[in-house]
Amino acid sequence: MKLQAAGRSRWLVYQKIVIVFIVLLIPLVVMNIGVNYKGLAFVKDEISESAVAGASFYSKQLDNELYFIRNQQLLFMNNRDLQKLSFVGGTIENFEEVQLIDQVKDSLLTLQSSSDYVVDAGVYIKSVGKMISMMNGVENTPNDTFRMISTLMETTPKPSFYRLGDRMLFIESENNSGIMSYIEISKSKLLAALNQIAALYQKSAVLLGEGKRGSILSTTKDTDVIPTVLSLVEEQSERNANKPIIQKINGTSYFITHSQVSSLNLSLVMYVNQNELTSKLSQFTTWFYAIFAITITVLLLYSFSIHFMIHKPLSKLTKAFQMIETDNLNLSIESKRKDEFHYLFNSFNRMAYRLKRSIEENYEQKIALQHSELKQLQSQINPHFLYNSFFNIYMMCKTGDSDTAAELSQKLGSYYQYITRSGSDEVPLFKEYRHALDYCEIQCIRFSNRIRYEYAEMTDPIQSVLVPRLIIQPIVENVFEHAFEDGTMQGIVYLCVDYREQGIRVTVEDNGKSLTDEKLEQLRTKLANSAEQKEKTGMTNVNVRLQLKYGAGSGVFVSRSQHGGLQVDLIINFTKET
C-alpha cells in the first residue's frame, strides 16, 4: 500500500515566509500605531473614571448605612414604651416599671442589631433616674456614661456626631433632656470599610476628614501628605467642583478623588500614587508592540503558508498514523519532496517496519515477562516472626515445657522447609492449605493458646489442583498481625476452601474487633491499586500474583466477616487463565 505525496514546489519555505511578511505586515503596523495611541487616551480616561466611581460607590454605601442608623435612633426615640416610661416613671408600680424597662432593652437590642457599625446603644431616662445600655445593662445615675453624654451634649453648635477620644457617638435628646439616647459607632468597622476602598489599589490611602477638623480616620500611618490633601479637597469643594485632582506632593504625583459623607458632615478622600495608575499603560505600549509583532508573524505566516507548506504533507502523515492505529502496519509513504518532510516520511516507513517487528517480539516475550514478575513477587515474602519463634522455643526450654518446644520446632522446621525449597512455582492446593494450617499452629503456640483456629477439610476434587506457592499463608499472617492487635482474648481464625463457578475460593476469617468501616475501605482501595504500589505487603503481593496469572477476575477480595472481623476471599478463576 502506497500513499502519494505532493510534488516539490519551485518556491522554498523561507522565500514564501519573507514575501508574505513584507506584503502584509507593513500596513497592519501603521494601522496598529494609530489605534494604540487612541486606545491609550481612552484607557487613561477609563481608569480615572473607574477610580472615582469605585470610591463614590463605597462612600455612598457608608453614608446610607450611617443614615439608616440615625433613622433607627429617631424611631427609637418615639418608641411607645420609652415615652410611657419617661412620662409615668417613678409613679407606677415596680412590676410595671420593670416590664417597661425590659421592653426598652428589647428595643435597644433591635437597634444595636440593625447594623454591624453599632457597637453599643443606650438611653438615659430622667423620670426613673436610670441609664439603660446593651453593654452595661441597667444602671442608676449619675454614672460615667451619663456624665460623658451630659458633657458632650453641652457642645455648641450641635455637631453631626460627637467624638470623645477614639469613640464616635450619635446622641439625641427629647422631652427637655428627659430622654437622652446614644449610639456608639465601631471605629474598627469604619476602618475596615475604608480599607475595603483602599484595597482597590495597592499604593492608595483612604481617610475621613475635613479641612478644619483634620483627619478623623485614615488607613495609612503616613500623615505627612494628609493636611495638603484635605486642603486641596476643601478648596475644590468651595468651588463646587467634584472632579479628581492630580497634584504633586513632596515629590510624588497623586490622583485624589473625594465624595461627601453627609451623615457625618465629612469628606471621604482616596488618594493614589499616580504611577500606579499610569505605569502599566507605559508598559502596555512596549508589550503591545512586542506581542503585536510576534502575533502578526505567527498568525500570518501560518495562516497563508501552512496549507501549502505543512498542512498537506502533515495530513498525509496523520492519515498514515490513523491507519497504524487500526493495526494496519503494512503501509509506507512515498515522497518525491526534498525538504524536511522527506526525512519524516522515510522515518515513518522505518518506524512502521520496526514497530511491526517489535510487536511480534514483545508478544513472544509476554509470557516470559509474567513468569519473571511472579518470581520477583514471590521472593518478596519474608516471614518476620522467625526471631520471635526462636525466642518462644528458648522460653519453653527454660520453663521445662519440652513437649511444646519440640512441637513448635517441628512445625517451624516444616514451615521453613516449605518456603525455602527451590522447586516448581506451583504446588498442589492441599499442600498450600496444609502449610497455612502449620503456620496457624505455630502462631497459636506462640500466643499461648489465646488464639485458636478452625478449619474445614478440603474435598477430594480440588486437592490436587495446582496453585501458586505461598498465597494462603500471607493472608493468615495478616490476620494474626492486625486482627488481634487490641489484645482480644479467645480470638478465632476460620479457614475453608470450596469449588465455585469453575474456580476455587479460599476464605480466611477472624472474629477480631478492631476492624472499622474506614479501615476496610482503605484496604479495598489498596488492593484495587496494588499493581501501582512500589512496596507491596503480603496481601497486595498475593493479589498481584493471582491477577498476573489468572486475570483481573481473580485476586484478593475483602469484606466484613459474619464473625465480626475481616473476611478475605482468594478467588482463582481458571476460565481467565492466560
Structure description:
By secondary structure, the chain is of the alpha+beta class. 54% of the residues lie in helices and 20% in strands. Helix 1 (13-77) packs antiparallel against helix 5 (187-198) and helix 10 (402-420) runs antiparallel to helix 11 (429-446). The protein is flat and about 110 Å long.
Query: What would the principal axes of the Cα set say about the shape?
Result: flat
**Average pLDDT score:** 79
Residue fraction in strands: 15-25%
Span of the ends, CA to CA: 35 Å
User: Looking across the biggest beta sheet, what order are the strands in?
Assistant: 4-3-2-7-6-5
Uncertain spans, ≥5 residues at pLDDT below 50?
376-382
Portion of residues within helices: 40-55%
Largest sheet: 6 strands, antiparallel
How many helices in DSSP terms? 15
Strands, count? 20
Sheet/helix structural class: alpha+beta
Radius of gyration: 45 Å
Organism: Paenibacillus violae
GO molecular function, one term: kinase activity
Protein name: Histidine kinase
Pfam families: HAMP (PF00672), HATPase_c (PF02518), His_kinase (PF06580)
Brief descriptors of the model:
578 residues, alpha+beta, 6-stranded antiparallel beta sheet, 15 helices
List the helices and strands and how they pair.
Elements: E1 2-4, H1 13-77, H2 80-88, H3 94-113, E2 118-125, E3 130-133, E4 137-140, H4 144-153, E5 162-164, E6 167-174, E7 179-185, H5 187-198, E8 204-210, E9 214-218, H6 226-238, E10 245-249, E11 252-261, E12 266-273, H7 274-325, E13 332-334, H8 340-379, H9 386-399, H10 402-420, E14 426-428, H11 429-446, E15 451-455, H12 460-463, E16 466-468, H13 473-482, E17 491-500, E18 503-510, H14 517-528, H15 538-550, E19 555-560, E20 566-573
Parallel strand pairs: 1-13, 15-17
Antiparallel strand pairs: 2-3, 2-7, 3-4, 5-6, 6-7, 8-9, 8-12, 10-11, 11-12, 14-16, 17-18, 18-20, 19-20
Helix pairs in contact: 1-5, 1-7, 2-3, 7-8, 8-15, 9-10, 10-11, 11-13
